[in-house]
């Protein structure tokens, strides 16, 4: 008789964040390998996987889908590797026997049409929650997608690239099928049609209802609480000439790329913000009823949009100790993890200041950008565009064309006044406009 292996959430993985067991990816009796994803958990910030601690066979699923789970809670049990080997052998024999009995009776399989209505996923494919979610919305044959992840694993970026280059007649968005039991979910996925669910609107107009995810609900609560219940928001707006950093980037982006690092404009803003936070430490703070807590480290969060899924704010820790390439490397790591849905809760904790680069989607000015509580301020960066401005050149006012953008600082007026706000923005712009070429 084999021993039983307990499946739990590892210590430190949630860091106190509340989690819901979103779905099981396996069923009782299924053979699993070490590190194979067993379940998806959803916190108020990220979706994450619980992996098998060892080879084995699923004995029992103890926690149910929709249950609130915590570190140390028993989620499932596995039979050990010896049990798994027996199960695999029995399953193989049964499959061969069944195939032998039915081959003579079964007609030739029907040809699968080019356009499918439910994703076809190769057996044993290891997929992140973000990829599984996309496959539920865009049915396709996963074997046709070239994976760029570790071991050829298909990532969210791979799917997005495939969807951009695949005719719409092949990939047709569908509504999610009704919820399945673990046993149904473990059955082989085919291209059988799924009848779309009919959703009744609440306004009396033709509409589709999309339930809020835990992340979306938490974002809504957080924004309302910050703006209406906690901090009186005030916003100041300056204008920055990005000529200096544009020249520096043009000269050095190839060198950065040779080291595997993408040099983005956001990296310059993070670096300049760290300098400005050190110059005006009141901005890098948290308001308390009796004191203003000034933080020694500049832990800068960068808002990262996840499309309709919401927004996350991964944090670059101790930014003041990093040079530009260190900032750019860490920024790239966190941004890639956010878009591939592999961020850990610890990646988004400990932030003391936040940057919202809303200009990447074309916005010139956004105000107020709601403060990420319990911080005291948030920096907004508008779209970079060439504009005609007046410069005094050799004593003569001259119209010149420069790459310009608006930068804003929304503050908690309990903690900061206009003096600190404008001092911070003036320092930030001085850093950007005087960036050395080397």
Based on the model shown, name its key terms.
29% helix, OB fold (Dihydrolipoamide Acetyltransferase, E2P), 438 residues, 3 domains, alpha+beta, Chloramphenicol Acetyltransferase, seven-stranded mixed beta sheet
Give the fraction of residues assigned to helices: 25-40%
Structural class: alpha+beta
CATH superfamily of the largest domain: Chloramphenicol acetyltransferase-like domain
Question: Between the first and last Cα atoms, what is the distance in angstroms?
Answer: 68 Å
β-strand percent reads 15-25%
Q: What is the total tally of β strands? A: 19
**Main sheet overview:** 7 strands, mixed
Overall pLDDT: 81
Here the CATH topology of the largest domain equals Chloramphenicol Acetyltransferase
CATH architecture call of the largest domain: 2-Layer Sandwich
Q: Segments where pLDDT lies below 50 for 5+ residues?
A: 90-99, 110-114, 174-179, 188-200
Number of helices: 9
The domain count comes to 3
Round the Cα radius of gyration to an integer and report it: 26 Å
What is the H/E order? EEEEEEEEHHHHHEHHEEEEEEHEEEEH
Name the overall outline: globular
Overview of the molecule:
The protein has about 450 residues and is α+β, with helices and mostly antiparallel strands. The chain folds into three domains: about 5-85, RNA polymerase II/Efflux pump adaptor protein, barrel-sandwich hybrid domain (OB fold (Dihydrolipoamide Acetyltransferase, E2P), Beta Barrel), CATH 2.40.50; about 110-185, no CATH class; about 215-435, Chloramphenicol acetyltransferase-like domain (Chloramphenicol Acetyltransferase, 2-Layer Sandwich), CATH 3.30.559.10. It is about 30% helix and about 20% strand. The chain contains nine helices and 19 strands. The chain has helices spanning about 80-100, 130-135, 155-165, 180-185, 215-230, 245-260, 265-280, 325-340, 420-435, and strands spanning about 5-10, 20-25, 30, 35-45, 45-50, 55-60, 70, 75-80, 235-240, 285, 290-295, 300, 305, 310, 315, 355, 375-380, 385-395, 395-410. Strand 4 (about 35-45) and strand 5 form a beta hairpin. Helix 7 packs across helix 8 and helix 7 crosses helix 9 (about 420-435). The protein is globular, with a radius of gyration of 26 Å.
């Amino acid at each position: 008789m084999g021993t039983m292996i307990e499946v739990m959430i590892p210590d430190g993985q949630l860091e106190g964040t509340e989690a819901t067991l979103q779905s099981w990816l396996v069923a009782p009796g299924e053979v699993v390998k070490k590190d194979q994803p067993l379940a998806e958990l959803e916190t108020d910030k990220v979706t994450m996987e619980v992996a098998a601690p060892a080879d084995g066979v699923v004995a029992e699923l103890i926690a149910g889908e929709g249950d609130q789970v915590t570190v140390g809670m028993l989620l499932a049990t596995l039979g050990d590797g010896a049990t798994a080997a027996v199960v695999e052998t029995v399953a193989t024999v049964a499959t061969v026997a069944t195939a032998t009995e039915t081959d003579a009776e079964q007609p030739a399989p029907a040809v699968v049409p080019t356009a499918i209505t439910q994703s076809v996923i190769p057996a044993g494919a290891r997929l992140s929650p973000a990829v599984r979610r996309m496959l539920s919305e865009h049915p396709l044959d996963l074997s046709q997608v070239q994976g760029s992840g570790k071991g050829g694993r298909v990532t969210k970026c791979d799917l997005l690239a495939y969807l951009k280059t695949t005719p719409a007649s092949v990939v047709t968005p569908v509504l999610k099928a009704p919820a399945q039991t673990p046993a149904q979910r473990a059955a082989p996925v085919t291209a059988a049609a799924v009848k779309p669910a009919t959703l009744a609107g609440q306004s009396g107009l033709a509409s589709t209802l999309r339930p809020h995810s835990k992340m979306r609900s938490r974002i809504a609560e957080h924004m309302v609480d910050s703006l209406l219940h906690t901090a009186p928001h005030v916003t100041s707006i300056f204008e920055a000439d990005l000529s200096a950093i544009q020249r520096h980037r043009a000269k050095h982006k190839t060198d950065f790329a040779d080291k595997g690092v993408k040099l983005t404009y956001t990296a310059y803003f993070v670096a300049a913000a760290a300098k400005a936070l050190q110059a005006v430490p009141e901005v890098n703070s948290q308001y308390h009823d009796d004191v203003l807590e000034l933080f020694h480290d500049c832990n800068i969060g960068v808002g990262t949009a996840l499309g309709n899924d919401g927004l996350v704010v991964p944090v670059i820790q101790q930014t003041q100790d990093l040079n530009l390439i260190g900032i750019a490397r860490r920024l790239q790591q966190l941004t890639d993890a956010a878009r591939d849905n592999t961020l850990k809760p610890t990646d988004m904790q400990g932030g003391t200041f936040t940057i919202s680069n809303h200009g990447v989607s074309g916005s010139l000015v956004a105000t107020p950008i709601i403060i990420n509580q319990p911080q005291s301020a948030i920096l907004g960066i508008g779209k970079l565009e060439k504009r005609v401005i007046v410069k005094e050149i050799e004593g003569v006012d001259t119209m010149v064309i420069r790459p310009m953008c608006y930068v804003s600082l929304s503050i908690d007026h309990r903690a900061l006044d206009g003096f600190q706000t404008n001092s911070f923005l003036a320092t930030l712009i001085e850093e950007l406009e005087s960036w050395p070429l080397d």
